[in-house]
Amino acid sequence: MREPKLYVASHDEIANGDATDIYFKRTQEALRAAGLQNVRVRMEVHLYSNPPEGDWAVYAGLEEALAIMKGKPFTVYSLPEGTLFRRKTPLMLIEAPYEAFAPYEAAILGALRFESSIATKAARIRMAAGDKLFLFFGLRALHPAVFPAADRAAYIGGADSVSGVLSERYLGLKPQGTMPHAFIITVGDQRKAWRIFADVFGGKVNVTALADTFDDERNEALMAARELGDKLWGVRLDTPSSRRGNMRDIVEEVRWTLDLNGFKHVKIIVSGGLDEEEIRELRDVVDGFGVGTSVAMPRSVDLSMDIVEVDRGKGWEAISKRGKMPGAKMVYSCGPLDHLVVPWGSEPPTCPNGSKAEPLLLKYMENGEIVRDLPSIGDIRSYVLSQLRGLGLIK
Predict the structure, then answer these.
(1) Can you say whether the dihedral through the CA atoms of 97, 100, 105, 111 is positive or negative?
(2) pLDDT (tens digit, 9 = 90+) per residue, 24-43?
(3) H-type helices in 205-318, by residue range?
């Protein structure tokens, strides 16, 4: 009888270039057979389609991409991780012998697309939520192999907290969460379940009662408040769509009832299939949101990687496939989303206000060695939020 197994690429398989498409391996073999191992290329990562929502996206996944390329004959220039960007802005420039690089293209691009897509959606949820709590717990929508990467991207994009246990080990983020319906159903009585939870975790976490398992949301919220009193920090409403009706009316009814009975301190968190529109409709009447699938499985930021220059031993030749702009490029910044793209080696341009533009495409790796300090996850998140504030998209 065959034993079940997890279909997960190992760290070594990714680092060795085995986690790739077969045509990259065949390209490598063919270049070796033709004696073309020394042909060097400059490859550009960019977004040529429109961002999935709006006109900008968040660049994320750089650290993982660098981890894949470390120790190999690659030189890497990149925008800082967390930079907001628009269509056609070069995000990364890689110099390498293509024969050596080919097996890593899929893994590098996959890491960048995965994290950028989640970070971009998280930033848009952050905008919709305003100053209210934004808790990410969408791991159940994903393969477990990518749980830490998903939490990382969501936090970079603006989530206040994440739920993954492994994120404390990998990211240094203390996971947050309330309780599932399964806990209450297993105990068999909501009051008893809330009391057990408060007795075990009171003083350690913000005790939040899931208040919609067996009864009406208003009744269960008041029941939890009376049962736990000052020990109760908040209630979470996770009403399924089949029973939801007008969620704003439900929240207002719960808030009114709690206040009327002297429980104004009890906060209300809403979760369950939320996206930007629902969050905007509720943010003035709730204290926070638990968001899962819409962030975990967003529309893709369709990044691509293309050769823009080749050196066959006679110097760099600007070349690309049709539909892409040939030649290496440098990116300069005059502020958030105010980027100037010029040919590589050009004089720094001047910003519209007369100041000198700042180079944004910076060297992170020289021949496989990291040459620039990598920021912490908190610093990257702060960078994203500062750009959103600079654009007036959040306060």
Answers:
(1) negative
(2) 999 999 999 999 999 999 99
(3) 217-228, 241-244, 247-260, 276-282, 293-296
CATH of the domain at 80: 3.20.140.10
- Closest among 299, 387, 302, 298 to 88, alpha carbons compared: 302
Point out which residues pair with 209 in neighbouring strands.
Answer: 235
In terms of domains, do 314 and 279 share one? no
State pTM to two decimals.
0.96
Instruction: Please spell the DSSP secondary structure of 263-280, one letter per residue.
Output: -TT-EEEEESS--HHHHH
Q: Which of 262, 277, 296 is the last residue of a domain?
A: 296
Which of 244, 264, 296 marks a domain boundary?
296
| Number of domain units in the chain | 2
| 200, containing H or E segment | helix 190-201
Q: Record the tokens describing residue 47, joined without a space.
A: 């977004």
Q: Convert 272-290 to b/e letters by CB count within 10 Å (16 or more is b).
A: bebbbebbeebbebbbbbb
| Residues 113 and 132 grouped into a single domain | no
Average pLDDT over residues 54-79: 97
Counted residue by residue, the chain has a size of 395
- Tell me what the mean pLDDT of segment 257-282 comes to: 96
Are 61 and 81 a contacting pair, CB within 8 Å?
Answer: yes
For residue 53, the model assigns a pLDDT of: 84
User: Is there a single domain that holds both residue 385 and residue 350?
Assistant: yes
Q: What's the CA gap between 377 and 155, in Å, rounded?
A: 8
Terminal-to-terminal C-alpha distance of the chain? 59
Please give the residue range of the domain that contains residue 336: 13-118+300-390
User: Has residue 352 been placed in a domain?
Assistant: yes
Which pLDDT tens digit goes with each residue over 150-175? 999 999 999 999 999 999 999 999 99
